[in-house]
Amino acid sequence: MAVTTPYTERTDEQRAICEMVRQFADEQIIPSAEHYDHEDSFPEPIVEQMKELGLFGVTIPEEYGGMGLDLTTYAMIVEELSRGWISISGIVNTHFIGGYLLMKFGTDEQKQRYLPRMATGEIRAAFSLSEPELGSDVAAIKTAAKRVDNETYEINGTKMWVTNGLRAALVFVLVRTDPSVEPKHRGLTCFIAEKEPGVSENTGQYAGVNVPPQIKKMGYKGVESTELVFDGYRCPAENILGGEDTGLNKGFPQMMDALEVGRVNVAARGVGIAQRALELALKYSQERKTFGKRIAQHQAIQFKLADMATQIEAARLLTLRAARLKDAGERSDLEAGMAKLFASEAGRFCVEEAFRIHGGYGYSKEYEIERLYRDAPLLLIGEGTSEIQRMLIGRKLLERNKL
Ligand SMILES: Cc1cc2nc3c(=O)[nH]c(=O)nc-3n(C[C@H](O)[C@H](O)[C@H](O)COP(=O)(O)OP(=O)(O)OC[C@H]3O[C@@H](n4cnc5c(N)ncnc54)[C@H](O)[C@@H]3O)c2cc1C
Predict the structure, then answer these.
(1) Which of 18, 29, 78, 350 falls between 20 and 30 A from 189, CA-CA?
(2) Does the CB atom of residue 239 touch ligand 1 within 6 A?
(3) Pocket probe mutation, ligand 1, options 95, 160, 216, 381, max atoms within 8 Å of Cβ
């Protein structure tokens, strides 16, 4: 059952792209998501079609072979992909963040070298901040890069939870380059670490970066989450994001900027999964009968549907507002935090309500809602937990309203 997502103020181009991606989700993603989820296998045929549709180059400028679209349009696309399956949006999302980092901070040479192949999906990108001992506390990063000669740094340490960690050819990795500076976040640098996609033990020019077997997860299957072990990995100084002169020890503000768009992106995923949960709930509640009538005729069920639809609408508006502010060149850290917080919680809420509406069948792997129930909690964690969003929102509120 298709329920419309009536964006106000959509351009003709946005409407056409969203319809195309929705059709792609309805025809290609939703029918096979169950298979890939249950097998926890990479949805290669879907990814190949996404390359053909140009979905890896949505925000990459046309001069580099991308579509050159804005964050707002990207958020609309991510909603549609996530409505299909959030793992599919996960395959694009880290790539999008890598593209954003390059476009905003990369040297001309770095842009020329990577963006054209990223736009087609020939190579894909991951980003890596988290480590086994830290996620929220990014400034505590221990993985370190040391200069070994004029042209090279050596990276040592273990990264954790790298989405697309195995299949990515590029990892935008945040590491410590100054161990003594205070505050600690001033000693971090973003390297563009190249590796062989799909290879666990890299050799030759990429020797020293290995990918252990993927982490087994509750949901968000199909897309791999891995550790990355750097052990004497040699990275050219020219692979410092923005170049050594500009980028050394500037990785923290670069990554925080990228996380701002990343939060809009996770918010859009929350809207997408919530939208799908509502569709499933609307369908099931008009089919299932109890006490002589469709359960949708019970007021308690209608209230659930009403709360879900209202939360989705609010989450979508917050998401688009944060995206539009960023597109207009304004700071949107507060708004992106609010959108991420509200939309990811709305995703969890709507999925749980839809699950309840399905009664016992919601617990069966025969029903799509079972997958959504395992997928939704990820959105509460990635790109900063709900607690971290609240901290950020509170801090920004005080900053903007100083007495
Ligand atoms: C499937 C998956 C994919 C991921 N993909 C990536 C990726 O591609 N790249 C990447 O870099 N990371 C990735 N992550 C990591 C993710 O960003 C972190 O898990 C997240 O930031 C939380 O960090 P943590 O797990 O270390 O929790 P912790 O930081 O240890 O937090 C534990 C708990 O304490 C709370 N907490 C922490 N500090 C405070 C505080 N100051 N005040 C109040 N409460 C606090 C947190 O909200 C949380 O509830 C991924 C995670 C998952 C599960």
Answers:
(1) 78
(2) no
(3) 381
211 touches 226 (CB < 8 A): yes
Q: Are residues 280 and 211 in the same domain?
A: no
- How many Cα atoms sit within 13 Å of 92 on the Cβ side? 32
- Closest atom of ligand 1 to 217 CA is 1
In order of 312, 348, 360, the CA distances from 373 in angstroms are 17, 8, 13
Q: Tell me the β-bridge partners of 190.
A: 174
For the chain, give percent helix, strand, coil, nearest 5: 55, 15, 30
**Could you report the average pLDDT of every consecutive run of 10 residues in the chain (403 residues)?**
56 95 98 97 98 97 98 98 98 97 98 98 98 97 97 98 98 98 98 98 96 97 98 98 98 96 97 98 98 98 98 98 94 94 98 98 97 98 96 95 95
User: Which pTM value belongs to this model?
Assistant: 0.96
Distance CA 298, CA 286 (A): 11
Residue at 1 is within a domain: no
CA distance 60 to 76: 16
Instruction: Enumerate the β-bridge partners of residue 128.
Output: 173
The number of angstroms, rounded, from the C-alpha of 13 to the middle of its chain's C-alpha atoms is: 23
For residue 105, give the CATH number of its domain. 1.10.540.10
For residue 383, indicate whether it is catalytic.
Answer: yes
CA 176 to ligand 1 center in whole angstroms: 19
Number of domains in the chain: 3
Instruction: Give the active site residue among 79, 227, 352, 383.
Output: 383
Q: Mind giving me the DSSP string for 203-223?
A: -GGGTTEE-PSPPP-SS--SS
